[in-house]
Amino acid sequence: MATFEELQQERFKKLERMQKAGILAYPAQAKKTHSIAQVLERFDDLAKAETEICIVGRIRAIRGHGGSTFLNIEDESGSMQAYLKKDRVGEQQYDFFLETFDIGDFVQLRGVLFTTKRGEKTLEIADHKILAKSLRPLPDKWHGLQDEEERFRRRYLDLIFNKDVKEKFEKRAKIISGVRGFLDNEGFVEVETPVLQSMYGGADAQPFITHINAFDLDMYLRISLELPLKRLIVGGFEKVYEMGRVFRNEGVDRQHNPDFTMLEFYWAYADYKDLMKLTERMFENLLTQVLGTMKLEYEGKEIDFTPPWPRVEYGELFRKYADIDIQAMNRDALFAKAKKLGAKVDETFSKARVEDAIYKKAIRPNLWEPQFVIHHPAEMFPLAKTREENPAQAETFQLLVAGGWEIVKAYSEQNDPILQRKAFEEQESLFRKGLEDAQRMDLDFVEALEYGMPPTAGFGMGIDRLTALLTNSHSLREVILFPTMKPR
Q: What is written in the cofactor note of this entry (predicted)?
C-alpha cells in the first residue's frame, strides 16, 4: 500500500503533466449554469429537453469500467453522479482525464442528463475542465477523525467529510440572523465599539495584553462590550446592541474558549424585569424561526422553552440543592462547606465568592429547564443596581438551562456615579490583594456617568453557548469554526 508521501508525489506528477499540456490547473474563471440541487430538483424537465448544463464541484469518487468512468461530484448544495465515456469525449481526452484527475479535485463538467438502468440521475459529460488540482489525498476513511483534536485543527476536512458539522454552522448563521432581526424589529440600533481598549472592564476576567507601536502603549483586547455601549446610552441612544468577538485570558473547557462571540444590548428606561419578558419573547421568536418548535433535545433530554419561565431566587437554590441557608451561615462555615462539596475556593475569597463557587459546583448542574435565577449577591455584580429592599442583593438574572449552562446574564445597570466609583474602588482593592479577575477602576466611565445616564437595563448572551444548545453540541468547540488550539 502506497504511503501518503508516495500518493502526494504522484499528484505532483499529474500536476506537471497538466502544465506540460498547457492546461491551467488553477484557472481564475469557472462556468456554472445550475447548482447540483437545482439539477436534481428540475431533473426530469432538463433531461427531457436535453438541455446542456454545466455544474462545478469536488470529485468525491471515481469508478472506472473499461471505456467508461463514473464520478461522484459534490458542491455546497448536494452531490450527483456523472458519466465519462470514451466514445463521447474521445480517446485522448478520456485517457488524459484518467491520467491526471483525482478524488478531491475541483472540476467543471458540461453535458446532458440521463437516468441509468439502475435509476441513478446522471450527467453525461461532454467536456470537463480542472478548476483546482488537489495535491493532498483525502483520507480514505473518516469516521469523524479518530483524534477529535484533529477535527478542530483541520476544520476544512471535518466539513468535507461530515455534513452534520456543516449543518451546525449553517444553523449558527440562522441563529445570528434571527437574533439580529428580532432586535432590529424591537428598535435597537446595531453599533460597533473598539476591540482595543486602554482599560478593560465589564466582566470578571483576565485580559489579553497587546501593544500599539504608534503610541508606544500597552493595550487590552476587550473582555466585554458593556462600558462603551453604556457610554452611548449617556450620549442619547436609547436602544443599542453589538454582536462581536470578546477575549478572555482564561481556561479552556466545554463551556469556555478564549475568544468567543458575545451579544450585548442596553435599553434605556427599562429594568431587569422588563428584560426577562423581552428575553422570553426573543427565545420564542428565535426557536420558532430556527427550529420550528419550542422544544429541543439536549444530550438525551427534552427541554421545553415555552414561556413564561420560573423566576427563582438565588438563595432558594442553595436551600433546595445544597441544604444551605446562605443568610444564616458566615463566611468560614460556608468555606468549610465548599471544601466538603469539592468547590474550587481560595482563602482570599469573600463570602459572596465562596457562595458563587458552591453555586457553580453543586447547584447549577441540577438546572435543566429554562429558568431565571434572580437576585445574586451585589458584590459579584459591581456594575449592577442593588435592590432597594435588600442592598446586599443586586437586580440581576441569569438564564440557566441544560444542566447549568449560563446562556444570559443581565441586570439593571448602576447609573449612580458615586456608587459606581465606590464599587470600582472595592474591586480595585480586591485586585491589589491578588484577585486577578476583579474589575478595574475606569475613571473615564465614571466621568461619563457624571453627565447622567437614565435608568437602563443591560443584557449579555454568549452566541456560542446558545448555538451549542440549539444544535445539541456538547462543547463550544463543536460550534466555533476555528476554536483556540495549542500548537502541535
A: Binds 3 Mg(2+) ions per subunit.
